[in-house]
Amino acid sequence: MERISPHQFMTLGAAVLMGGTFLLLAAGVTVASGRDGWMTVLPGFAVGIPYGLMVLSLLEQYPRKNLLRISEILLGKWVGKIIGFIYILIAGYYGGLVLAVLGEIFERSIMPLTPRWLFYLGGLVLVLYLVGSGIEVFARFSEILFPVIIIALMLNVVLTIPRIEQGELMPILSEGIKPLFYGVLKVMPFAMAYILFLAGILPFLPTSKQEIGQMKAGVWRAVFWVGIVDMLVVIVQILVFGPGETIRLANGILVLGKLVEVSRTVAGIESIFMGIWLGAMVIKICAYFFMTSWGLETVFNLKGFKWNVIVGVVFLGIAFGLPRGAYLLKELSIAESYLLCPFASVWIPILWGVSRWKKGAGV
Amino acid sequence: MNNRGKGLKIGFVLILIAGLLLIDGCWGKREVEELAPLIGVGIDLGQRPDTFLITEQYALPKKSGSSASDVEGWTYSFEVSNAREMNEKASKVLNRLPFMGSLKVIVIGEEAAKAGFKDVLDFAQRFSEFRRSMYLVLAKGKAQSILNLKLRKGELPAMFIKSNIETGNKISTFPKVRLGHYLTVLGRKSTAPILPVIESIKPGDEGIEYKAVGEEDEAQEAWIQGAGVFRGDHLVDFLTDEESKGYMWLENEVIHRLINTVGTGESKVIFGGQVLKSTTRFKVKGKDGTIGIQYQIKASIAVDQVMGLKEQLSETEWLDLMNEAEKSFAKVIQKECELSIKKERELGLDFLEIGRHIEQRNPAYWKTVKDQWEGKIADFPIALDVQVTIHHSGMSSSSATTNND
Predict the structure, then answer these.
(1) A259 touching B, CB under 8 A?
(2) Which regions in chain A score pLDDT beneath 50?
């Protein structure tokens, strides 16, 4: 079986955690926490750290098994199968949703006349290629692309500093700390999406004690890297647009890209940024494609190229079948907050708790 | 590698190549020659109810032009009910596709500004081709007249407005408002938006004399001076040149300024100078249970002109005179600020963003006054502290002509 290194684990995890979060995060946290919304980003992502450590501690106990298999061992075959089935449904549905969002964003922002199926098909072909090539190629793809995404985001942030409206972050905590709690709830689903990916990738991870230690540090690093970068993206959007406009703008980061002007020579470079954001979303879709495939293989023993194509068709079906515009973003938010987040936040601690209990009881 | 795997990879590569060719923009592809770059838009009220007279100014490279910057302007006005209808009509006339990404300036006509222009402006902030970095200006009179001016310099009015705004830092006499800033201010609720005013100037207006081209009464020059104060998207009143200058000081927007005193000191000497640096800070303070705002303006000025000197001055006397210059400049700045504050109180509209400053520094107090803020502006305590430093006094320390007087 393929293996990825602890470094690849970190960058792949960070890239999956990042995904397209920077496209939607600012509006969500600002709705929930007002101009203090930026403060909720890092704590929201940090929720993923204990979950990540729980998943890796299960890896130590059950090497080369994913959490679906471990669920069958710890909770019984049928309970494990039901959990696996839910995992497949969530991964497949969310992957299709992200694919739909990819088309929506391109159509809305820079290519309004290009048919949406072309974005779906273009993204999906790349995903199928990565899935067909295996997890190691996907990890290397992320290793190359993730730094480019970070550099592009930082460039976007730095180059829009001249457009900052003074004092938009002030006053700090004028509404107290209660609204911050709601902001954290908005960010948590992104961390849980990452945790569900970790749940599936375990069989491809090294199992020596030293490497597991490195991967635990990798979880911390991935969360802090992504948390800090996303926090900066939210800060700059609140500073440039003010909280009212940050909430109103459908994709603030895209508008920010249009504001980049260096002297009178560099302008209109938002299409370059969009190309990079496409890569970020492909990583997320690919991760969820992998998760669906792993689920099918573990629960139903269905694997191979044929099943990858079927999963691809399902993703396309979901992307085409979903409503468009604001309804699509609402659907994405509902799936994150009411499907993905509750499932991961309950499943992992229960599994970890049962494994600890069984270990303690010597069962 | 087995044959099946090889075939799959070749298949993927072929699909990727096909994807690259298809995604290249065939559906939305627009050749540059087919585009008409829009550079200026004017918004006026139409004759018919619920219509706008929209003027669009396009810049196209001259076919016989010697350089890429040699452009000719096409300006059209249509009475339409919305911006997309305007696009449709312009496309028919132009035989090209209007390109919105190049828009630099939106000019709001006075009547449209009084009636409210939010709905017609919605297109500019919603359609993805536009950039929020475009400038907004208010026209004295009709926006259409401004965009149809035949400027003596041969420039297109929209380009003139853009370059005038961008070089405005050198004199800092009017606010620079981009669409993005206007929308951010609208989102604040407590702050009244403000836009700079453009007006055409005829020979004899405001002391300007020049030889007009064409008809005798045809305006051939325009300038940006003063500002309009809005409640939301409705124009309420204009600020004079001095009131606008006061706004610039209080909003910390003075980069450089050319400034003159009026000879009020003991020696009645008049000073002319250039502001090299200026910083405005504010404090929201409570005294005897009353909250107020205190501005502190610090300006560094180079004295470029001294008029009315009666005799050669010694070194000590020159230093005394420069002290007097500091006080005289401070008085001028103070007066401009006071005029601006007076206008704010009269209008009951917070274009100076005092409410926002209070919200930033004392949010607990702001929560108690924000709902009655417009009523509170009239007597809200505002204090000014203006400090001027003479950075240098040019190449001379006296007057060259005093010995002959």
Answers:
(1) yes
(2) none
